[in-house]
Amino acid sequence: MTPRKIIIDTDPGQDDAAAIMLALASPELEVLGITAVAGNVPLALTARNAGIVTEICGRSDVPVFAGASAPLKRKLVTAEHVHGKTGLDGVELFEPARPLETGNAVDFIIETLRNEPERTVTLCALGPLTNIATVFERVPGVVARVKEIVLMGGGFFEGGNITPSAEFNIYVDPEAADIVFRSGAPITMMPLDVTHKVLTTRARVQRLRANGNRPSVAMAGMLEFFERFDEQKYGTDGGPLHDPTVIAWLIDPGMFGGRDCNVRIETGSELTLGATVVDWWKVTGLPENAFVVDSVDSERFFDLFIERVGRL
Ligand code: RIB
Ligand code: CA
Predict the structure, then answer these.
(1) Which end of the chain has a smaller Cβ tally under 10 Å, C or N?
(2) Pairing of strands 121-125, 64-66
């Protein structure tokens, strides 16, 4: 079977690292490149962290590009309180052997969409949508060449995590999210409603560490750091493992459930800035612009994640 071509746009972030590992370990996917965006931590760190993760996985063949260092119209809001100062606290860090690509992430995404056959490249968005919105604003014609955008972002029944009504990725750059959700590209949305159902319990982290290979041991250390904030906040055993749900969707969509909905982004109100207004009960009659995922078989998800990372 021909592997599905993907670009991972990301702000590592321990959960981004988990998504990158799952993608690199899965023969169903061909990672054409990784594009870094400012989000959890500033761009210099997210770009370096992406290189660290590919090297830990023995996949320095995958190019990493730096993209936007700030949202389209707002000051950058970061999340060191969750991810630590480095963005990858929990694992010993180093300078990646392979330097960043000299080209910009936005140019890489545009060129890839232009050069690959149309509707064969999937964009996996794990951070604020600044890079992808910039691509669509700069070259509107490439939107039609995108196979699918699968993004971690938003929340509806679950509310928000950075404000009562907004999830971090959307909140950081709501204008970018608005451009992406209005673009007409096929979107699959992994909001907090589903990511809060995949918790890194002690037992699961132990199973991961028991793989014994370098990526699994490194990932276990990252998760033990990353989960502490959410365990305290939600009083749960483990924290939500947000970003790998994007990759798991591409490998085994049957583990998820959801529905086509109209989704709009709040960009005006300071009170609810970045809220994803999901018309779950179809009361507006507005066009359905996203498949919104709200359920997952979490055991099946972690079986996949742990088994695949163990292969690296
Ligand atoms: O709200 C969770 C999302 O914000 C995840 O993608 C996490 O990595 C941060 O980017
Ligand atoms: Ca992320």
Answers:
(1) N
(2) unpaired
Measured in angstroms, how far is the CA atom of residue 244 from the centroid of ligand 1?
Answer: 11
Radius of gyration of the chain (CA): 18
**Dihedral sign (CA 267, 286, 165, 127):** negative
Domain ranges of the chain: 4-309
- In eight-state DSSP terms, residue 163 is B
Per-residue confidence at 1, pLDDT binned at 50, 70, 90? confident
Q: Identify the residue whose tokens are 């699918």.
A: 148
Q: What is the pLDDT of residues 221-278, one digit of tens each?
A: 999 999 888 999 999 999 999 999 999 999 999 999 999 999 999 999 999 999 999 9
Indicate the SS3 state at residue 45.
Answer: helix
Fold assignment, 4-309: Inosine-uridine Nucleoside N-ribohydrolase; Chain A (3.90.245)
Ligand 1: atom nearest CA of 11 is 10
**What's the predicted TM-score (pTM) here?**
0.98
